[in-house]
Amino acid sequence: MPTYVWKGRGRGGQFEEGVLVADSREAAIASLRRQQVRLSSIRQRGRQIPFMPRLPSRVGIKNLAIFTRQFSVMLDAGLPLVQCLEILGDQQEHRKFREIINQVRSDVESGSSLADSMRKHPAAFDNLYTSMVAAGEAGGILDIILQRLSLYLEKLYKLRSQIRSALIYPTTVITIAIIVVWVILWKVIPVFTQLFAGLGGELPWLTRMVVKASNLVAAYSWLIFLLIFFIAAAIRGYYKTDRGRRVIDGLLLRMPIIGPLIRKIAVARFCRTLGTLTSSGVPILDGLEITAKTSGNAVIEDAILAVRKSVEEGKTLSGPLRETKVFPPMVVQMVNVGEQTGALDQMLSKIADFYEDEVDTAVAGMIKLLEPIMIVFLGGVIGIIVTAMYLPLYTILGRIS
After folding, report:
1. Which of 7, 46, 255, 318 is deepest in the core (most CB within 10 A)?
2. Is the pTM value of this prediction over 0.70?
3. Do residues 136 and 87 both lie within one domain?
4. Can you give the CATH number for the domain in which 102 is found?
């Protein structure tokens, strides 16, 4: 008889998996249901048999920060590692993350280290996380390392939330403006066009331009949407290539308002990540490699990798940072002081705090700057359309008078 490998939830809601011998797939499912097991997947050995469609789900940074904070508190209180993972898995609401924690616990019970068990799940634990956990296990200071990790993740989450909040307002206003203008051109302008056609006479230049735009929207709406979709897909595909990512990221860094903000965010992330890694005992070369991968910008990633290569050849950290022309002079000078005094991790943390405050100020200033720009933009667009529609009426009234 065939053998089936299954995964699911038991009576108490805990994650379970096992092997079952049955005549058929239906018989295996029926047997497990009699045991009150809620299946998530079942496969016959040799081929996958989907039981329930599962979409890929990545663990969010907020869930990871809460997990890390609670994990560090439990370890600091003296609870055994396996018991901490069991408690955290049982109380985790994120289904995917709960399964990952339970699998990590199972691997640790089998004799694997915590870092090796976490490396099997990159959707939740990236290289930075597992490298710091490995350093904590090696030094016997896992609870301290987890406290530093939770602090790092909380600051990173705060930074991302600020950026996301700053983008909500302009994105919403632009979207509403596009929809309003589109509806006016599609539904309102044709009514005025019929009125003008009945009155006769030559229309003003501005009115003719708006009428042509309305005719274009009414006749080729589907084609315009299709063109926008293909352009967006082409840009996204180009960005996935190495050359495209470097070109687009370079253009973003050179933009007037967004460029300096992106640079400050990258510097804050670089200093926070590298400072956290070095203070946790991760070697500087490994720390630079991990930091480069988490930079979020291809140009800055290349600069950090170039710095790593120079450090690998025996140079200091501050000199190669200066040569990249990416990091501000203040950052280079403070890193140099940190290297000379032997307090590089503390200096990097101070730089990160400073630039995170700079990002807060820049985001607040950008929002204040965008508000009048958006008002002028919306008023200008709507004003042009209204003026174009009423110019012929004023002309006709003038002739009548």
Report:
1. 318
2. no
3. yes
4. 1.20.81.30
